[in-house]
Design a protein that fits this description.
With 194 residues, the protein is α/β, with parallel strands linked by helices. It is built from six helices and six strands, in the order H-E-E-E-H-E-H-H-E-H-E-H. It is globular.
Length: 194
């Protein structure tokens, strides 16, 4: 019973203060570039984004894997159930991206999201809200099993391909895999490589 009481007290304190810094943790990673940047040689990058609308209990996510030359390797869009708000949708999207990376068994990967709150929570920079704690914990477990995979914040302008994939129509419980960019994203992918 004491554990439950402490849990509720921690929740009330977090809600009253908002998101606060955790002592002895590194500062948040800031994505300063307004353009997509390729990963270092020999690395891969997964950009991920979520699309969510108020009044619905699901979201869609888009993710794209590119190499150090900026070449589109694979993209995905999927419909995920039970997202209650934007933060939950973004956290679910990052979790799906990390699961995808783990299944690919690619060595060095940078996962980028334009959700600063979710990225900071996953990286332990800030406390996270109770509503998404289980998703954040799952992301952290996935990262612990992949020491050469990192999660980083990036500006929305540098995440346009993932955003475009997340906005694509997708029926309930679908997964669409792209081996080349969809027609409406070819120009954005080419712009990123310039």
């Amino acid at each position: 019973m004491d554990v439950c009481f402490k849990f509720v007290q921690d929740w009330k304190e977090a809600r009253s203060k908002g998101v606060t810094k955790v002592p002895n943790k590194k500062q948040p990673m800031q994505g300063n570039s307004r353009r997509w940047q390729p990963p270092e040689n020999g690395e891969y990058k997964v950009n991920v984004d979520a699309a969510w609308s108020q009044g619905v209990d699901f979201c869609s996510t888009g993710m794209v894997l590119r190499d150090s030359s900026g070449h589109f390797i694979e993209g995905r869009t999927m419909h995920l159930p039970q997202a209650g708000d934007v933060l939950e949708a973004e956290a679910l999207a990052i979790r799906e991206a990390l699961s995808w990376v783990k299944n690919m068994e690619v060595m060095k990967v940078m996962v980028e999201s334009d959700s600063l709150v979710a990225v900071n929570a996953i990286n332990g920079v800030n406390n996270y809200l109770l509503e998404v704690g289980h998703i954040i914990d799952h992301c952290r477990l996935l990262l612990q099993s992949m020491p050469s995979v990192r999660v980083k914040f990036v500006r929305k302008q540098a995440n346009e391909v993932a955003h475009g994939l997340a906005k694509m129509p997708c029926s309930s419980n679908c997964l669409v895999i792209f081996t080349s960019p969809p027609t409406h994203l070819v120009e954005t992918c080419n712009f990123d490589m310039v």
